[in-house]
Amino acid sequence: GSDACVDCEGTPFGGKEEDRCGHCMVPVLMCNGGRLDGRACASEEDCELWPCAFGGEWDDCVDCFGVAYGGAERDSCGTCGGLDATCNTAYSILAPSTQLCASDPLSVSWSGPGSFPSSATLTLSPVMPD
Fold first, then answer.
1. Could you tell me the CA-to-CA distances from 100 to 31, 96, 109, 110 in Å, in that order?
2. d(CA 75, CA 116)
3. What is the CA radius of gyration of the chain?
4. In the predicted model, what is the mean pLDDT of residues 95-111?
5. Alpha carbon of 48 to those of 39, 78, 82, 84: distances in Å?
6. Are 32 and 51 in contact (CB under 8 A)?
7. Rounded CA gap, 69 and 20, in Å?
8. Which residues contact 6 (CB under 8 A, 6 or more apart)?
9. How many C-beta atoms surround the C-beta of residue 61 within 10 A?
10. Which of 33, 77, 80, 118 could form a disulfide with 64 if both were Cys (CB 3.0 to 4.6 A apart)?
C-alpha cells in the first residue's frame, strides 16, 4: 500500500505531490494571466478574475480546459480557446487616487487585449462634482 505521510519523493511529511504530468513538487497557487500573472493567490478574485492555479511547472502539460497534453490556450482576454478578435472592446481606466488639474500630465498603461486597434483613441472628460 501507500503511506499518506510520505510524499512522492519518499520523504516523510515532505509536502511534495505528483501533478497530472508526473512532476513531483510542492504545489503553489499563482495568478495565471493578466497584469498579476505569477503573483501568489488564493482565488480568482486575487487575480482580477484570471485563473488562480498551481504555478511554475505544476500541471504545465495541462491546457486551460484541464486536459493533460491538450492544445487549448487562453486568448489575451482570458477566454480559454477564444480568439482575440472576439474580446470585449468596452475598455475602462481606473481613475487616479488624487485629483488632476487640466495641465497635469496623465500616463495610461494599457493592459488589455494585444489586438487593441491602432486607430483607437482615448478620450478623457472632466467629471464635475455635485
1. 32, 8, 17, 20
2. 13
3. 21
4. 62
5. 11, 11, 18, 19
6. yes
7. 10
8. 12, 13, 14
9. 14
10. 80
The predicted pLDDT at position 26 comes to 85
Q: Could you tell me the CA-to-CA distances from 46 to 12, 35, 52, 62 in Å, in that order? A: 32, 11, 8, 22
Pairing outcome for strands 52-54 and 24-25: unpaired
Q: How far apart are the first and last CA of the chain?
A: 72
pLDDT at 63 over 80: yes
Tell me the mean pLDDT in the region 29-53: 89
Residue 9 · residue 22 · CB < 8 Å: no
Beta-carbon neighbour count of residue 73 at 10 Å? Answer: 12
| Grid cell in block for residue 63 | 491546457
Measured CA to CA, the distance from residue 8 to residue 115 in angstroms comes to: 43
CA distances from 87 to 15, 31, 40, 59, 71 (A): 40, 20, 26, 27, 20
Query: Residue 8 is placed in which grid cell?
Result: 512522492
Name the phi and psi angles at 81, rounded to 5. 75, 10
Q: Which class for 51: exposed (0-12), middle (13-18), buried (19 or more C-beta within 10 A)?
A: middle
